Fold:
Amino acid sequence: MKVVSDQMRTIPELYPDDLITKARKCLREDSFREIFITNRDGTLAGYIDISDAILVNETKSNLEIQAFLRDAPVVQSGDSLEAVLQKIRDAEIDTVAVCSPTGELIGAVQLSALFPIIMTRQNPEGLVEDYMTRKVVTCRPDDPLHAVHSLITESGYDALPVEKENKIIGMISRRDLISHGHIRQSIEAQHRTPVEYIMVTPAIITFRNNTIAEAAQAMIQYDVSRLPVIEPDGQIVGILTRQDILNALELPGVVHA
Structure:
């Protein structure tokens, strides 16, 4: 049976007295939403979130990382994947720190890596409408990239539906924005390149009466973290995320109604 060490990733080396701008660069250029910070002796100091790092304005760019540190959920390399997913669900984050028994940070594990594995072990019951989030943040195809990048960061979501005339026409993710080198320059220079230039079409969607298991398989097949929930006419009525699906799984500490 797979355990934490099978799915562990190395992480950037950052310390509490490093400038927040250094962390911001790492978060912009990697797939992490959270980065774990170590003390000089290698022990875990905490973590910072992408929203904290990127929303710091330029006049405060001399701030140190320690001003933004949060307490980090921790697992050990031999823990079960179910135990890790419980930590992720409870903390409502995408990544957990992996530490040695003496507190040294040795890596991190992401929900995106664990999700396909846990879905081969479980067949959750329930419909999409039972677990979806009804508050939906969207953007328009003519919105400039830098504005959409800011919206993704401020909202805390990894991806947004692109909507035109109350119908979904595509999706744009943080990964889409940062995977294009010239897009990064456009964002920093605040050029008015529209989001339709790199949005993904057609959007991978689900319907409110689909099962959670069907939606999870679509996420795995297309490697996406969230699915817009739409009506047959294309109107968006909700969002279903990997985190939402965790609430339908049989994990330690989960009590179903």
Notes: The longest strand covers residues 167-173.
